[in-house]
């Protein structure tokens, strides 16, 4: 089964192929969770980009807002190699946050 999906902001066209409906559904759900972020939840800018940082042989995946420098970090599942947005610690802003230095 082949699927084509265009993200809500129409920036990406995603091609998926699964052996059956369940596998296709799972692939689409994963793709939407990662690639269908419409804008930065802090400043509402659509000028966001995908960033992968490598530190000591570890890859860190995130979306970065080019307008306000906020980011949405992604975690990695231990099995399967898939990603998920880290939204738990910043629930009010859907996981988006800006680094602010500690003021002493």
Please outline what is shown here.
The chain is of the alpha+beta class and 104 residues long.
For this entry, give a set of tags.
single chain, 104 residues, alpha+beta, 2 domains, two-stranded antiparallel sheet, globular
Secondary structure layout:
Blueprint: E1 2-6, E2 13-17, H1 21-35, E3 48-55, E4 58-65, E5 71-76, E6 83-85
- Global outline: globular
Total number of β-strand segments? 6
The run of helices and strands is: EEHEEEE
Give the CA-CA distance, first to last residue: 57 Å
Q: Radius of gyration, rounded?
A: 15 Å
Low-confidence stretches are none
What's the mean pLDDT score?
A: 92
Q: DSSP strand (E) fraction?
A: 25-35%
Biggest β-sheet description:
4 strands, antiparallel
How would you sum up this structure, described in words?
With 104 residues, the protein is an alpha+beta fold. It has two domains: 1-36; 38-104, no CATH class. It has one helix and six strands, in the order E-E-H-E-E-E-E. The protein has one helix spanning 21-35, and strands at 2-6, 13-17, 48-55, 58-65, 71-76, 83-85. The strands form two sheets. It has a four-stranded antiparallel sheet, covered by helices on one side. A two-stranded antiparallel sheet has the order 1-2. The radius of gyration is 15 Å and the shape is globular. The termini are far apart. The model has no long low-confidence stretch (mean pLDDT 92).
